[in-house]
Amino acid sequence: MGLAVPHSREDTRRQILRAALHHFAGKGYAGTATQDIVDTAGVTKPVLYYHFESKAGLYLALIDWAAEERWRRTEAALEPDAPLPRQLAAILEATFSFVRENRELTRLAMGTLFAAPGEVPHHGHCLTKGRRVFDVMEQRLEAGRRAGTLKRDFTARELVMALYGMMNFQVMLHLVLPDEAPLDRGLAERLVRLFLSGAAPEGRSAARRKASPARRSLR
Fold first, then answer.
1. Mind listing the domains of the chain with CATH numbers?
2. Sorting pLDDT into bands at 50, 70 and 90, what band is 3?
3. pLDDT score at 200
4. In this predicted structure, what is the pLDDT of residue 114?
5. For the residues of the chain, what is the DSSP string, one character each?
6. pLDDT over 70 for what percent of the chain?
């Protein structure tokens, strides 16, 4: 059964994208025929090719939109003058809100990252766009190191790998078990607090670090 009849060029484009997402998410890129998409969208193949040139172009348009929309939300959430914990929580919540509202698209985008060579269209430019959230998080952490808010034991790259990894694990868990991993502002703030303060009781972590033979051996 097709979607509602579109009323404008932009409506047509969005309708084709929705139909494509439905099929790509359900059957994968190789398993989706162009005819499946046009039948669901209620358009003809020439109309699809007018907007996207090819099935590959349509797939990349979806992945590109995911990166752009996630970045748009991140930019809107940034508060350059806010304390570091608030800035980091805002970045995480921007990603969480995108994932909550676009679960199928997120799953498709993440699957694209791990696809075998040739399994999906080449998407290098989309990866570059997707990296912007990582980069802005790294910039905020480096600013925190320079300001003395964060210790200099670790580089900004090591720090962003840790926090970004925590965020991505929660995203993947949500995609598999959405009821057990709700992505909300509270979770974003807890992850940032855990990242910045650690899990050891306050007052003990410093003593443990000083007494730790393992820590001394790493110097």
1. 1-53 (1.10.10.60), 63-199 (1.10.357.10)
2. low
3. 78
4. 81
5. ---PPP-SHHHHHHHHHHHHHHHHHHHTTTT--HHHHHHHHT--HHHHHHHHSSHHHHHHHHHHHHHHHHHHHHHHH--TTS-HHHHHHHHHHHHHHHHHH-HHHHHHHHHHHTPPTTTS---HHHHHHHHHHHHHHHHHHHHHHHHTSS-SSS-HHHHHHHHHHHHHHHHHHHHH-TTTS---HHHHHHHHHHHHH-SSPTTHHHHHHHH-HHHHHT-
6. 86
